Amino acid sequence: MTTNPTSESICSTSANGPPGLLSSVCCRTMSGVLDAVAGDFPPVVRLETTNACNARCIICPHRDMRRPIVTMSSDLYTRLIDECAAAGCREVHLHNFGEPLLDKHLEERIAYAKQQGIRRVKIFCNGSLLTPARARGLIEAGLDELKVSLDGATEEEFERIRPPLKFHVVVQNVVELVKLRNAARSTLKVHVACCSTTDREATMRSLAKVVDRFAFGKLHNWGGQSTVKKRLRKPCSRLWRTFTVLASGDVALCCLDYDGQQILGRVDESHSIREVWNAEPYRDIRRCHREARQSEIRLCAQCTKSFL
Of 113, 144, 184, 305, which one has the fewest beta carbons inside 10 Å? Predict the structure, then answer.
């Protein structure tokens, strides 16, 4: 069992000297806004119901993950949802570093969260397992938002980026999901996200008139897997707005900590979400970001999300 870490295990002495003046001002100003709106419970809780994945995308380090492949226990999931509901948490994501549709109990978990009063339940999937039967189950369970990753401008580019997934299968699954959603008059929002393509217009061509939203993002470096040229520092808002529980019950630094290298605590029979969220490890890591000392945090030092 992972114990709650001390602040010494999170921040180390920086070898890069004090932060620059502009970075200090930027971090202090932006974190002041984040502090002002932060509460004693995370507004968004991310529950990794499974860290298994059926894809080997070249833009994702899942293949390098050393954590055991597990599915979150029903007891842990129920306890966490109950706490979120009691705290009035507005949004729960049932995904993190895995393909959520590999969780055979996903529909049951969604339905339970909605029954307990969670206002917004969301999943982010790769679309390959989104069969009509699963689509109906997700709609009937009351899922509020489903986002599908779709990279590449052509079938060939998609299948090169996301092996062994098949482009036509993913596209057809999304089309059928929207048809079923419309027939059921469900309020489910269906979005597509892309972060790697040679032609945005070509990427949108197959689904732009089908889904509710098509968004393009930038590739990040997964918590410092590649070096970032020195730029202006900023505090990462994830530390104030999201809480990431791995399938094991460990609480990771953020969703980019794919291997659970920086554990901020553990939610179990003895430790709640609220306790971990307000404990010293979280306070210490926010303090480092507030003071532009991200270089002292192993995962944040070169993470693209810690720079403007």
Answer: 184
